[in-house]
Each structure stands twice: as structure tokens, then as C-alpha cells.
Write a structure and sequence with these properties.
15 helices; mainly alpha; about 0% strand; about 350 residues; ADP-ribosylglycohydrolase fold; binds magnesium ion
Length: about 350
């Protein structure tokens, strides 16, 4: 499978998981079961008045991608660039789409923020909103101790750039001050990058990623949760709604990552894995998105059910972002670049 299919699979797969989970994000499992039957929700149902609606998770993922693309353009023209600060500017653009005014001057240029359908509130996380509102400049770190899953859920595009771990962890730290909150994000991007670059399966990428990053200070909670999931996988212990609830439901970073990985590791198909990731009492759209990113990168866009892709909100926007990422050189890591990717006008590097 070529790199473009994996990038598209990753971005669209995450968005599809987000959209499947959106109508049940705030429902307990017994309520989901009584509304949708014993298998739970298995198809898009309206959320926010739209069938196939994405949520804040995918919105912020797209603005993170925009930041990475702009950082490439800026680095190409100026020779140097602090990537997390450029991502921060993009996240502040997202904040404006949520009817909040940042404390810093934000330029509303570039094509992404002009997409009117992005100007819609989809239960945005309080931590992200308050940290972005309080920021006093690009690159300003969050002054909180949050370890919600709001950093993990948006960093997948970092996987397609050099320094994936650092970009994800450092941009996660813009909103989440607890090490688990931003290091789990770094680990997620690193796992995705290994799957994309080496074309290895999730189990292998996860093991490698833990070996490289698992002993870093602040990584303890993520490592313990992921080792538990690997043990479950080897023992043939499959995720069920009740077992996912015992795991904590995924509202916080290491749980969301662990549940998303557990559902992807044990998946028999893209469809089955994502369905298992959204049917529980916890943060269904975020765990659905994490599983969708992982299975999308592993199996490519062709594995995503057509009935979901066909109804996915902002599908063309997500596909365009995937294509634009594909145009950049893989080895780009914030310095230099030949500047002829053809994306300069759409991603102003100022
Ligand atoms: Mg959400």
C-alpha cells in the first residue's frame, strides 16, 4: 500500500470513528444498548442535526495538520521555524471558530479556516478552550495540570512529519499541562509514524514505541495502561462495553489511548474495531477516533466502509489535507525544505 493511501486512511479513519461515536459521546452503555440494540450503535445517526457529523476532535486534528503544513512553508522560506508555535497559531484559529476570542492576535488567512462548516461547536473540551483562551503568545504552555484526552485526539497528523513524538507532545503541552496528557499524545503519534514508515502492524509499532519512549519521566501512567492492554491482547481478552468501562472510559489521556489501541489490536476489520471503540459509557468519539486512525493507517482508506465515507461530514476537506501532507518530503523536521511543494499559497507561512 502506498503512503498516500495510509495518510488518507489515517485521517479519514479517525474522522469516521469520531462521527460514529458523536451521537453516543455522552450516553452510558445501558442507554446506548436500549436505543440501538444489543450490538450498540453500528451506523451513523444524527448528531448536532447532521448524519455523519464530526466533532471537536476532528476539527482540532485538521487545524493541527494545518499548523504542520504552515510550519513546513515557513521553515522553507525562512530556514528555521518553531513548529509547535505554528501549530498553536492554527489551534487559536480553531478557537475563533468556536466563538471565543484569543488573547493573542490571530490571522484568519489560509483556506482551512474559510471552510464555513468548521465554524460549529461540537461539544469542545473545556481544557482546550480555557488553555487556548489564556495563552499569551504562540508557544505559550498550558498553565494547568490537565490530563484529559484533548491532546491525544488531535495529534495524528504529526505522524507524517519528522520528529512526530516531539511535535505531538510539545503541541499537546499547549493545552494540557500534566505529563500524561501530552506524553500520551507523543506516544500515539510515534506509534502511528512507525506503522506508516515501516509498514508494520500495530502490535510491533506499540512494542517498539514503548521500548524507545516508555521509560521517559512522566510516561509511567501511559506505559502501565498500554502494557495492560498488550497483556489483554496476548491473553485473548477482548474489549466489551463493560470491560472498557472498567478501564475508565477514556476521558483521560492514557485511558483513551489504551482503549483505542486495545480495540484496534483486537479488531477483525476496520468496521468491527471502530464499532467496539465507540460502544461504552465513556468518551466514545475520542476512542472511536483513535481506533479509526490506527486501523486506517494499517489497512488504508479502502478498508473504511463506503456507507460511512459517503456520509462523512467534511470528507473533501479531510481528503485535501491528506493530499497536501502527502506532497511534503517525509524527512522534513522543521528546518529548511526546498519550498516547492506547491502548497505555499494555501498555507501562508507568516
Ligand atoms: Mg469530541
Amino acid at each position: 500500500m502506498n503512503r498516500l493511501e495510509r495518510i488518507k486512511g489515517c485521517l479519514l479513519g479517525g474522522a469516521v470513528g469520531d462521527a460514529l461515536g458523536a451521537p453516543v459521546e455522552f450516553l452510558e452503555w445501558p442507554a446506548i444498548r436500549s436505543k440501538f440494540g444489543p450490538d450498540g450503535i453500528v451506523d451513523f445517526t444524527p448528531a448536532y442535526g447532521i448524519t455523519g457529523a464530526i466533532t471537536d476532535d476532528t476539527q482540532m486534528m485538521l487545524f493541527t495538520a494545518e499548523g504542520l503544513l504552515r510550519a513546513y512553508v515557513r521553515g522553507s522560506s525562512r530556514g528555521i521555524c518553531h513548529v509547535p508555535s505554528v501549530i498553536h497559531h492554527s489551534l487559536l484559529r480553531w478557537l475563533m471558530t468556536q466563538d471565543h476570542q484569543p488573547g493573542t492576535n490571530v490571522s484568519l488567512d489560509g483556506w482551512l479556516v474559510q471552510e464555513r462548516d468548521l465554524w460549529s461547536r461540537r461539544a469542545p473540551g473545556n481544557t482546550c478552550i480555557s488553555a487556548l483562551k489564556a495563552s499569551q503568545g504562540f508557544g505559550f504552555l498550558a498553565q494547568n495540570t490537565s490530563k484529559g484526552c484533548g491532546a491525544v485526539m488531535r495529534v495524528a497528523p504529526c505522524a507524517f512529519f519528522g520528529n512526530a513524538f516531539e511535535y505531538a507532545a510539545e503541541s499537546g503541552r499547549l493545552t494540557h499541562g500534566h505529563p500524561t496528557g501530552y506524553l500520551a499524545a507523543g506516544l500515539f503519534a510515534d506509534i502511528l509514524q512507525r506503522m506508516a514508515d515501516q509498514q508494520v502492524r500495530l502490535e510491533h509499532a506499540l512494542t517498539e514505541s514503548l521500548a524507545v519512549h516508555g521509560d521517559k519521566p512522566g510516561m509511567e501512567e501511559s506505559r502501565v495502561a498500554l502494557e495492560r492492554v498488550l497483556f489483554f491482547f496476548y491473553e485473548g481478552y477482548f474489549p466489551t462495553p463493560e470491560r472498557i468501562d472498567e478501564f475508565g472510559g477514556g476521558w483521560i489521556a492514557e485511558q483513551a489511548l489504551a482503549i483505542g489501541i486495545w480495540c484496534a489490536l483486537t479488531a477483525t476489520s476496520f468496521e468491527q474495531g471502530v464499532i467496539s471503540a465507540v460502544n461504552h459509557s465513556g468518551d466514545s468519539d475520542s476512542t472511536g477516533l483513535i481506533t479509526g486512525h490506527l486501523l486506517g493507517i494499517q489497512y488504508g482508506v479502502a478498508a473504511i466502509p463506503v456507507r460511512w465515507l459517503g456520509q462523512l461530514e467534511l470528507r473533501s476537506v479531510i481528503e485535501k489535507v491528506a493530499h497536501d501532507i502527502y506532497r511534503l518530503p517525509r524527512e522534513y523536521s522543521g528546518y529548511g525544505g526546498d519550498g516547492d511543494a506547491g502548497i505555499e499559497a494555501e498555507y501562508p507561512g507568516a
